[in-house]
Write a structure and sequence with these properties.
164 residues; Arc Repressor Mutant, subunit A; 3-stranded antiparallel beta sheet; 3 strands
């Protein structure tokens, strides 16, 4: 495996041109950006393999993670997927049309609605998560389990520092 990557070459070239600047942030964040591009391609391929769009996976996986009976209120779905109310309504409508989710009246609140995962939705999301994990495992293949734990901890600390 080469000991130098494209980021090293970019940082070295900048260093020759602007030796007055500290390019350390590029060493980390340019690699994170490149990794994000690889991850995006791998995720798209995994979702394509299971016939699921990324936005569909977001909604279906929120329902699946909820556990039996695999249903949530639209408000809870909004909180978990970070989209607007109108966007969620559109997504639930489209998923309902595909037979992946169903709506029903909330028995605890006759005015409320619950969105539930259908058997087809459960099959789709279970397939998508298995494909996704295979793809992500492949991306991490060159990093040991201990290094993955360390990297996860460092990224967690970075993200928590941003307030996310």
């Amino acid at each position: 495996m080469p000991h130098e990557d494209e980021v090293d070459r970019i940082v070295a070239a900048w260093g020759r041109q602007r030796d007055d600047l500290d390019f350390a942030p590029l060493q980390v964040l340019s690699r994170v950006d490149r990794l994000a591009r690889h991850l995006d391609r791998a995720r798209r391929a995994a979702f394509d393999a299971s016939g699921t769009e990324p936005w569909e996976f977001d909604v279906l996986s929120a329902l699946r993670r909820a556990g039996e009976p695999f249903e949530l209120s639209p408000k809870t779905l909004l909180q978990q997927t970070l989209v607007s109310s109108g966007t969620m309504t559109n997504r639930v409508d489209r998923l309902t049309a595909r037979g992946l989710v169903a709506r029903r009246t909330d028995p605890k609140d006759g005015r409320g609605i619950l969105v539930s995962l259908t058997e087809a939705g459960r099959t789709a999301v279970d397939s998508a998560i298995a494909d996704l994990l295979r793809a992500e495992r492949d991306i991490l293949a060159g990093v040991s389990a201990g290094e993955q734990d360390q990297l996860a901890g460092l990224l967690r600390r970075l993200i928590l520092g941003l307030g996310d």
